[in-house]
Automatic annotation (TrEMBL):
<keyword id="KW-0472">Membrane</keyword>
<feature type="transmembrane region" description="Helical">
    <location>
        <begin position="77"/>
        <end position="95"/>
    </location>
</feature>
<feature type="transmembrane region" description="Helical">
    <location>
        <begin position="224"/>
        <end position="244"/>
    </location>
</feature>
<feature type="transmembrane region" description="Helical">
    <location>
        <begin position="101"/>
        <end position="120"/>
    </location>
</feature>
<feature type="transmembrane region" description="Helical">
    <location>
        <begin position="280"/>
        <end position="300"/>
    </location>
</feature>
<protein>
    <submittedName>
        <fullName>Sugar ABC transporter permease</fullName>
    </submittedName>
</protein>
<keyword id="KW-1133">Transmembrane helix</keyword>
<dbReference type="GO" id="GO:0022857">
    <property type="term" value="F:transmembrane transporter activity"/>
</dbReference>
<feature type="transmembrane region" description="Helical">
    <location>
        <begin position="256"/>
        <end position="273"/>
    </location>
</feature>
<dbReference type="InterPro" id="IPR001851">
    <property type="entry name" value="ABC_transp_permease"/>
</dbReference>
<keyword id="KW-0812">Transmembrane</keyword>
<keyword id="KW-1003">Cell membrane</keyword>
<feature type="transmembrane region" description="Helical">
    <location>
        <begin position="306"/>
        <end position="323"/>
    </location>
</feature>
<feature type="transmembrane region" description="Helical">
    <location>
        <begin position="132"/>
        <end position="151"/>
    </location>
</feature>
<feature type="transmembrane region" description="Helical">
    <location>
        <begin position="49"/>
        <end position="70"/>
    </location>
</feature>
<feature type="transmembrane region" description="Helical">
    <location>
        <begin position="21"/>
        <end position="43"/>
    </location>
</feature>
<dbReference type="GO" id="GO:0005886">
    <property type="term" value="C:plasma membrane"/>
</dbReference>
Amino acid sequence: MSATETTPVKTSSVLAVLRQPLLIAIVLIGVLLAFGEALSPGFASGEQILRLLVVASLLGLVAAGQNLVILAGREGIDLSVGGIVSLSAIVAGNVMSGQDASIPLAILACVATGALFGFLNGVGVTVMRIPPLVMTLGMLGVLQGLLVVIRQGIPSGKAAPALADFVAKPFLFGLPGTIWLWVAVGLFMAFLLRRTVFGQRVYAIGSNEHAAFMAGVPVKRMRVAVFTFSGIFAAIAGLCLLGYSGSSFSNVGEQYMVPSIIAVVFGGTPLAGGKGGYTGTMAGAVLLTILQSILTTVNIDESGRQMIYGATLLVLMLFYGRGRRMRG
């Protein structure tokens, strides 16, 4: 076989690999772990990997809702997730006030907070026809204002000991509860997207909203639902973050806005929506968490990390973020 015949085959093989985001993420996770171990011996130890997975689970929970919003298409992005994480953590902390007996009520208040603001985002996008980017950015401003008002009159609250233990200490088979929660969310997302009418409709409106509407899909209700889900998942992340840190503060969720988008795009869901899945997003969350840990190891501050995240998102967008060729 001549070189001219083999070259197209090799090229197509390379392109096929590049269109497998989950495979790429797994390879990069291994590379980053090896690099981190070279920088700081013990970086890839079992104990450290467990800590990284706990941190990754928090990002992964936020990214679950972001994943649904982006899958639904229409250039949907939820920029308010950071504000919802922060507000939910503060609400839960104040309701809980360090008391185990108050955990059920705190969970209810936390989830209700996330669902409310997610629902309002969905209503703004569907009923008021505000573009998702503008609507969620405006909601972020509202949430930041609420955080300032709340912090002036109410203390930030404290996590109950049982919540702190669930999040960070061994819960089952030596793994912290937050990792098991993330696994449960992963299974729920897989079932929701692949085995339910809801999931089929999400992919349908993400692929072609007009065709989905003509086929009888309740597009507006679906879009409200995915934004509501995004708010709920962000609130759950806020609750876990409260348990992880022990207390809440006004800007605790800001760190999740851009990384949650990167995790989704890196996992194989294009910003155009309609294709992708949550498994790749989970791998993307782990990858970004390892990258963040490496950047911290080499003493890059928060502003530097945000610049790197932004540059990473731009590169992903240029590479495949807006297309429909990637498979989740």
